[in-house]
Amino acid sequence: MAQRYDIEAVRQKYIGTEIARARGRYPVEYDAIRRHCHMVDDNNLLFLDPEYAGTTEHGAVLCPPSGWLALYFASLGPWPAVFEPLLPIVPTPGKRIVNMNQEVEWFRRVKVGDHLSVSRRVADIYQKAISIDPDAVWIVAEAIITNQRDETVCVIRNTLLTHRTPEEVTAAREATA
């Protein structure tokens, strides 16, 4: 007989688990911001024009409020490539993963020259059935981005769905019958 998945034991062990903070390899750079803005057709002068941005209360070009751009500057790369775990490996019945949602909560502006870091933690784990898997597991993971003054810049929350294939669900049902 197959062992039943114990969601409460998993929740107790993994919620709150953190991956140590890692400092981004490079400071926030103007050229990466410029390329991002051109790619997404963002013409905000605070992001694109160093002369204009220098005359504002910010005093420098700002990084657009993009969670992915903040995460890029807080990460280790592009070169040499380094594997950074996104979150602790939470055991689940299924190995299929779908990123269901991302939300970003901003606390501070990011400027050219800032040096960002990221730490990650498991915020929540719960079971909620989906049409193909009655034991699907949902994981809420947070990436906390801080600047060189250890001020929280933003928190990126991802909701991940892990599930089994229909064949795995059938096999599990037959094993417990």
Molecular structure report:
With 177 residues, the protein is of the alpha+beta class. The protein has one domain: Hotdog Thioesterase (Thiol Ester Dehydrase, Chain A). It contains six helices and five strands. A five-stranded antiparallel β-sheet has the order 1-3-4-5-2. A hairpin with a 5-residue loop joins β4 and β5. It starts with 6 loop residues before the first helix and ends with a helix.
Give a short overview:
The protein has 177 residues and is an alpha+beta fold.
Radius of gyration, CA atoms, in whole angstroms: 20 Å
Shape: elongated
What's the count of strands?
5
Widest sheet, order of strands: 1-3-4-5-2
> How many DSSP H or I helices?
6
Short key terms for the protein model shown above:
27% helix; alpha+beta; 177 residues; five-stranded antiparallel β-sheet; Thiol Ester Dehydrase, Chain A
Q: What's the helix and strand layout?
A:
Blueprint: H1 7-14, E1 18-23, H2 30-40, H3 45-48, H4 50-54, H5 67-74, E2 96-106, E3 117-127, E4 137-146, E5 152-163, H6 166-176
Antiparallel strand pairs: 1-3, 2-5, 3-4, 4-5
